[in-house]
Amino acid sequence: MAGNAILCVDDENIILDSLKEQLEKYFGYDYLYETAENGEEGLELIEELLEDEIKILIIVSDWLMPGINGDEFLIKVHQKYPSIVKIMLTGQANEEAINKAKKHADLFAVINKPWSEDELFRIIKSGLTKNE
Amino acid sequence: MKKLQLNTKLLIGITLIFAIIIVCFILLERQFSVILLIICCGYIISVLFISIITRTLSSVLKENQKKILLQNEEIANAFESLQESRKKYENLVDSLEEEYIFFSKSDSGTLLSVSPSVKTILGYDTNEFIEKKDSLYTDNPVNEKAREHEKKSLEGIQQPKFTVELLSKRGKAHTLEISEVPIFDEDNKLISIEGIAQDITKGKIAEDLIKEQEEKYRLLFNKASDFVFLYAIDNKGLPGKFMEVNDYTTQKLGYSQEELVRMSPADLTAVEFMDDTSGENQLKEDSKFERIWEAKDGTHINIEISTHSFKIQNRKVAIAIARDITERKRVEEEIRYINEELINQKENLEALIDNLTITQEQLVQSEKMAALGQLIAGVAHEINTPLGAIKASIGNLNDSLDKALEEVPELVTKHTTEELKLFIKILNLANRAVPDVSSREKRKYRREIAKALSERGIESPNIVADTFIYLHIFEKYNELIDFFKDNKSLEILNSAKNFASIQKNAYTIQLAVEKATKVVFALKKYVHRDMEGQKVPTDIIDGIETVLTLYHNQLKQGVEVIKDFEKLPEVNCFQDEINQVWTNLIHNAIYAMSYNGTLTITAKNKGDSVTISFADTGCGIEPDIQDKIFEPFFTTKKQGEGSGMGLDIVKKIIEKHNGFITFKSELGKGTEFTIELPVK
User: Fold this and answer.
1) Each residue of B232-244: pLDDT tens digit?
2) How close are the terminal C-alpha atoms of chain B, in Å?
3) Is domain A3-131 given the CATH code 3.40.50.2300 in the classification?
4) Which of B115, B302, B360, B433 could lock onto B326 through a cystine, CB 3.0 to 4.6 A?
5) Interface contacts A/B by beta carbons within 8 Å
6) Out of A53-67, B59-73, B92-106, which region has the weakest mean confidence (pLDDT)?
7) What SS3 string covers B374-428?
């Protein structure tokens, strides 16, 4: 099963569900939309998907989550998979964390909750353009 | 008796004569008888004459005899009184012997005799004294003078009394007062010198003693470093002129003794203080009062006078001691000033304390706000997350609704009854509620479903399986899977998805609103400030839950919260303040555990009180700082991370509630804070 995927990481199911629905609505079935509830699961999932030869193009991650925070998660991802476009979707922008992620995870963009569809699609689209 | 004898004799005589005459006349011649008659008559006359004379003499004699008897009596009386006087004098002399020595000296000055009293007075026998006399003079200078007097006495010049000092047999000096009288013969030649010596030793000692005492008192009077003076008191009882003043008075006031005796104590009172005469009248009585005196040079001296009035030779006088209290007054004034200062300072301090109380209240408030500031970051996330979900869901919902509305006519017209049944079945199976299924499990189901679909030869099984997951159809996919035969059934699945999406997004919105509401409600509860400033019955658990809600986003990162709550009675609390305690302790616990660990919150009902403890599995508190943690401004956090006021405020709040806060901590294992609050 080959393909490209967009990974969403957030500890809130309501976010994951609505976000996934939005992406599917906009980008249709061109991509797989995967979700993880925290950083650890995200890292696991990336491995899993790679095994299935699914390439992750973009990761949209929350910042404040149980376990490892968004910035740390993205840094870890970046260390292994620098090509993945990393986007932070957060309810509260912790400047320090964002700067850290920008520096060490090549953070592509920060989207604030609540987000607008347009902003989300525009950023994801440009992220995809960057990666393809 | 004698008279009677005399008369009888006379009668016998006359009778006898007349008898003789008769005889004669009878026997004898006439002539002879005449003669004899004459003789007889003569005899009778003489006898009569003698009788008369005898009688007269006898009465005179009797008279004299009486007188003599009287005189004899007088003499006897005089003798008696003489005897008495003699006795008296003898006694006197005896007593004089105690003090007087009588002596006589020759014209050459040799001591001739001395009265035995010398033995009593000086202890010498008379001869011994006469022998030794010249060697008994002491070397007291009075003896020089005495010798001169003695010399002059020998020259016949009467000397006034003089004194000598002689040694007694016991070797004690005796002072004798000597009176010497030179005795001259008819030719005015000096025969001897008679003298009396009086032992005045005792008297002298007393005199010396008086002198010495007077000297002492005079010294005391003059050398006293107080004003000491005597002044007269006039008829009206008011102070009159000074009579005597001591050296200190003259020195201090600058007036001479002569000047002062023309003045009265009242004259010394400084003019500007003359109004104050209240004490002046008291001068007549024993009293104590204060004055301001003006010295001759104009200096003012504060004095405190004690007076005592009494009488000397019927004159009313007063003695007074006045003390210079200028320095004391100055010190008093200083003390009064310092006292005022102190009162001022006390007032200032009280104001400061009031301020501090206000400040403390403000501090509590600002700590609360600071905690809130820290929370707000997380709280923003807590609110923005549901808001994000709501916003996204509304967009999704709108789109799904549009699509669904579009599909309704087609659904009704185009599809067979069979297909419509599938549609209803899908919607029935779809669970709009968010099931307790993790994303991991969802992926497992998706794989399972995709596999099953793939086995039935359905295209894009992954996408179809994804739709199943979206519809929350997990275990029950088997009930549906048999109906999927062709693309048409997939169309129906997608149509159902659009309808389900409406429900699902609406439900997400509902959930999100609930989440946001909970946070907002907690926030509202947290910032609530009891304006009345009064204790109200408070649900402690509710307060802790509120704080936990606000800390949810921090806790969820890795802190497991174990709640071991007994049912607690309502506790009278300053609600907003007590919540700050939970905030602080929960915050500290999270910080100590670095967002990872277990926080056990235990609430126990002890009847009259409740205990709430917060046990973390954090780093613990270093033993050497354990006694400092409640001190204000003490913090182990980096600058800017904490004010160090947290636990200080916690302690103050607990004390304000008459409660206690204790803690036990073990390095590397954790810390447990326990709070006990009285219910009432």
Assistant:
1) 888 877 888 888 8
2) 144
3) yes
4) B302
5) 109
6) B92-106
7) HHHHHHHHHHHHHHHHHHHHHHHHHHHHHHHHHHHHHHHHHCCHHHHHHHHHHHH
